[in-house]
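If you are new to this repository, start here. Below is one unmodified record pulled from the training split, so you can see the exact layout before writing a loader.
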Amino acid sequence: MSDALQELIAVVAKLRDPDGGCPWDLEQTHQSLVPYVLEEAHEVADAIRYGDDAHLKEELGDLLLQVVLHAQIAQEEQRFDLEAIARGISEKLIRRHPHVFGDAVAPDSAAVKETWEAIKASEKGEAPPSASPLSDRLAGKVRGQPALAGAMTISKKAAKAGFEWDAMEGVWEKVHEELDELKEAVASGDKAHAQEELGDVLFTLVNVARWCGIDPESGLAGTNHRFLDRFSRVEAALGGDLQGRSIRELETLWQQAKAQIRSEQQGAV
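And here is the target side for that same chain:
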């Protein structure tokens, strides 16, 4: 291993040292760290999305820290270590790329993907026949995906299997139907029901995105970015204090921020 990686391993081990380590780090478990793994992965994706190399380098470091920390916890319990993790993924890559490390031929990426899936299936061994094979495959596929990405995966595969509307009008009708059901659930005061209906609305909007050939994750990420840009300008106009302001005043400043951003973008073209 490189000196830099060895140093990181040593730093994490020190943080987890019962004698003089960090109390917060010592409290962590695989389960407690799940939110941080997801957060760091999303921050890596955000840095890639906006082409910020300095940010990307930093966020990849934060994500690497999570891997090393999980390996340290497992090593303390004598289950596995970082070397075993690295060896395992190397062996998997070699095994699933016979066209690179063996004599197989894969003329294009489609052939590579087909070979990968075939080898992956053989690794799992023979399974008893399933009454719902597509659902079983999708359940495994979306397990590690964010909910929005998982919804798109399910939507695409279900549509390809024939579970699809005849026209876009049917999708819009479903959107309005789910919105009405959400309104009713919210009005009823039943939070659990409202949460289910909100999920139905979001899933149906993912279907709209699929029909239109657009990426809902990128769309929402862009909205988050635009909102924060506008919101920061509203805050700045009010000296950082929004308390006690009327919605009319805030809306006026919001529209001014939108116009200012639009003017800056046009000037940059």
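Two things worth knowing about this chain: Residues 217-268 form one domain. The longest helix spans residues 53-76.
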